[in-house]
Amino acid sequence: MTSEDDAPRLTLPPGVRFAAVGAEFIRGIAAATGIEARLAERMALIAEEVLAASPATAVAVTLALRDRRHAVRLDVVFASAELDLAGLDQSRDRDVEDAAGVGLYLAARLADHLTTEPAGRGGLRLGFDLARAYPARAVPAPPDGLGMPVGTPVDPDDATLALLVDWAEAKGAGGPAFRTAARVLDQRAAGDLFARVALDARRRPVGGLFWQPFGRRLMALAGPALLLPEGPARKALVEALLDSALAGLVRGTVQGLVVLEAAPGMKRADFEVVGHLPDAQGGHPVLFRALEEDPGGITWVAPELRDWVAGMVRRLALGRDIEASPPPARASGAAMAAETDRAAGRVTLRPLLAAADAAEVAEANVALFRGQGFSQMRALLDLGRPEHAGFAQGLLRAGLAPAALIPDAAGDLLLLAATA
Amino acid sequence: MNGFALDRLVPAHVRAFEAYVPSPPDDVLRRRFGIAHLHRLNNNENPLGPPAACREILARWDPRDAALYPQGDGWHLRRALAARFGLDAEQVILGNGANEVIAFVIKAFCEPGDNIVTADRTFAVYEWLASFSGVAPRLVPLRDDGFDDAALLRAIDARTRLLFLCNPNNPTGSWWDHARLARFLDAVDGRCIVVADEAYAEFAEDPDFPDSFALMARHPNLVVFRTFSKMWGLAGLRIGWMAAAPEVAATVRKTSISYSVNLLALEAARAAVWDVEHIAATRAHVGAARARLGALAGRLGLKMVGAIGNFAMLHLPVADTVVHRRLMARGVMARAMTSFRYPGWLRVSFGSDEAMEAFAGALEVVLAEA
Ligand SMILES: Cc1ncc(COP(=O)(O)O)c(C=O)c1O
């Protein structure tokens, strides 16, 4: 959703001279498209900081602002990927004199969510997201006597989806994804959430399942939200929801479904346990369901993780060549991106740029977020990328431990976790 | 190079499409899964191999002929097939596997914005070829594991160019008889081309199985696909064919690729036409394997589906993609059916007795572990 649309964009030379121009552009677009001033001002600041900090090697920097409904997104595309991204890494202890570095550092701190991905022709795209706030409201409780599910679950219209979320929220069903109907509708409209909802004979929602993008080729499953009482109808409902989600997802780009926090009622036999995440109760399983056959692949690991990964590969019967990672080409400048969930006290780190100092950078990131009061530390490493292994060493030193191996023949995901 | 923006040159329907990745060669799979031997029961191949006459052609083949182009449109083979089925040779078109023939037909009849109609749970290639050609696949849910005539008819609209009926259906083995296909063609009433993909027709022993070549005379919008990959044991040589009414065939010929079928395939296929002893031997093997698989399914309490074809599906109590991997680790490759929209099902081809035994043993262990 980030490249091929017609959001207004502006391309500028890198560097501080044009930073104010970029910021004004963002303010102008925000005013023209009705983005509220609070978000617009923060985005303008991010644009200004990024432009000011962008190195001359960037050749050209393109800004695009889009309203993604549940979030506002600023995309900054650098024509060249040969950039020093260390400034984006929140853990970098900045020398105040190093103005450029501080700029990117600030930009990263201002965003709720930062993503990076390659852009066309060897470029790099940074995506800064600011989440919209939704006013709290009282939700209606589901009526008594919802009926048996009838027919196959549907991709619901907005009214049905909103009703499901309201009722799930009122009942405390389904987990955090099934809260705040307005946000869920916006997430779906932005292509960040997909839903299947089962209906009773009067076309009222009786249960639902959501999924959201997770990494390159996976979806994270949320739910099920079940509004029927325990019993055979509820069991059939769970089965029907998953079957229709699977049928809707196959033969496309999605390789598998991950469940990080299963809601009660999820049928375990339809999944495999690929690890455990620590929690206050001593841990809960991470579930996985592959959509496609796994023909085997290569998994790159740091020596410290080899035994753990080899054990998981055996336990899950994965066909993997387990290879030792070669050292990264860059000597320094490793960086990680952080996705924070302040309400849950959780931060998830991902490698942004690999270099020989990856281990130190990873350690510093964990220390930084611990210092800021985050209690749940997680990290996701793509074992299909040989250059990411170095981060693992630092994460282990900082007290994270491997928690789950999420299979993907094109690059298994290693989830590491620690609780403070 | 600064002016090359690949995305600008790629149509949206190609950009949106994920390339099909075939499974790696056996040596790579054996290494990755740590196994000494791999039984492939995933591609519906014939464990008996090609008929004797084909083997002889292959054994006698002069490698120096590899330097020569084949005849460009299978002159002799088309005549042999036409004679066998009471057709004119011009009604027969060959392809590099039936898969290529699917592409010829879509190219001949569809342009971006058109649609094809087929089932949601059938051979995937119709859906894929349409999708990356900018043609919308309209997928009609199966009813009781078979093609649903009424729903298919409802799905046809003014932009429908082709309707693909997989008969017998891969993966369910369900099938329409002659009367049902005839009624369906009456109801379609020429609004679109109806393709009957009969890749597994030679496995059908029931006399009510359609004589589609006869129906073609009354329904010039009927196209029939056949292949030498299944019954005839020539999957590795890649040769399939179609037959259609003369004016339809003449249209498809425009988008067919001359010289795409290789010399060995043409000669081997010609030698195979129409070895009834080979058919009988293969059917006997399939019948015995089906009975043994049925007994295994009964013992393990698994539902089995599959009437015609050299394969059947089993319903598992656990995720099929997990069982697929665990079977791989025991040297057996079956097909996980989630990607056919049959989550929890496994399709297994009727391979050699040895392979079927290996499958049975491995499945029992894997399910006991689950
Ligand atoms: C129904 C069906 N049609 C066509 C084909 C393709 O056959 P070929 O090997 O001739 O390309 C297959 C192969 O599995 C099939 O199952």
Automatic annotation (TrEMBL), chain A:
Protein known as: ATP-binding protein
Domain of life, per lineage: Bacteria
From TrEMBL, chain B:
Entry-linked InterPro entries: Aminotransferase_I/II_large (IPR004839), HisP_aminotrans (IPR005861), HistidinolP_aminotransfase (IPR050106)
GO molecular function: histidinol-phosphate transaminase activity
Pathway: Amino-acid biosynthesis; L-histidine biosynthesis; L-histidine from 5-phospho-alpha-D-ribose 1-diphosphate: step 7/9
Cofactor: pyridoxal 5'-phosphate
EC number: 2.6.1.9
Domain Aminotransferase class I/classII large: 40-363
Keyword Ribosomal protein included in the entry's annotation: no
Catalytic reaction annotation: L-histidinol phosphate + 2-oxoglutarate = 3-(imidazol-4-yl)-2-oxopropyl phosphate + L-glutamate
Source organism, top-level taxon: Bacteria
Record-linked Pfam families: Aminotran_1_2
Enzyme category, top tier: transferase
Record-listed N6-(pyridoxal phosphate)lysine modification sites: K230
Key words of the record: Amino-acid biosynthesis, Aminotransferase, Histidine biosynthesis, Pyridoxal phosphate, Transferase
Family per similarity comment: Belongs to the class-II pyridoxal-phosphate-dependent aminotransferase family. Histidinol-phosphate aminotransferase subfamily.
HAMAP family assigned to the protein according to its UniProt record, in alphabetical order: HisC_aminotrans_2
Binding partners and assembly: Homodimer.
PANTHER family in the record: HISTIDINOL-PHOSPHATE AMINOTRANSFERASE, HISTIDINOL-PHOSPHATE AMINOTRANSFERASE 2
Protein name: Histidinol-phosphate aminotransferase
Source lineage: Bacteria, Pseudomonadati, Pseudomonadota, Alphaproteobacteria, Acetobacterales
This protein's encoding gene: hisC
